[in-house]
Specification:
It is a single chain. The chain has helices at about 1-20, 30-40, 45-60, 80-119, and strands spanning about 30, 60-70, 70-80. It has one domain: Winged helix-like DNA-binding domain superfamily/Winged helix DNA-binding domain (Arc Repressor Mutant, subunit A), CATH 1.10.10. It is globular. By secondary structure, the chain is of the alpha+beta class. It has a three-stranded antiparallel beta sheet with strand order 1-3-2. The protein is about 70% helix and about 15% strand.
């Protein structure tokens, strides 16, 4: 039970980084964002995604435009603004640092466990 709570919190923490990463190279509409997140095993609901997109847009990190759709209502396409691109670069750098730190800790933990079991 405790692991699941921690995993949920970790995924929530990475969600903003994943969203701006998905918008790094092209415009994406909301249903496509949800689909791509699900394909990456990051299950997200409309109730989670829309407030986050709205917050990022109000902060000037995302912009959107409406486009008519042949198969239904108009679609809202999101893209990164220049401040959003700067945020992505900062988050990417932070992710690299965090990932390296975790690798070091995990490798040290494995070595420590090995030393303790050999004593």
């Amino acid at each position: 039970m405790q692991a699941q709570n921690t995993i949920t919190q970790m995924r929530r923490g990475f969600l903003e980084f994943c969203i701006v990463s998905l918008l790094a190279n092209n415009e994406v509409y909301t249903a496509e964002l949800i689909d791509r997140l699900k394909k990456a095993n990051l299950l997200v609901t409309d109730g989670t995604l829309y407030p986050l997109l709205n917050r990022l847009q109000k902060a000037g990190l995302l912009q959107y435009r409406w486009e008519e759709s042949e198969s239904g209502p108009p679609r809202k396409y999101y893209s990164l603004t220049e401040p959003g691109r700067k945020l992505l670069n900062e988050l990417d750098s932070a992710w690299q640092d965090i990932n390296e730190s975790v690798k070091l800790i995990r490798s040290g933990t494995k070595k420590l466990t090995k030393v303790q079991t050999n004593e």
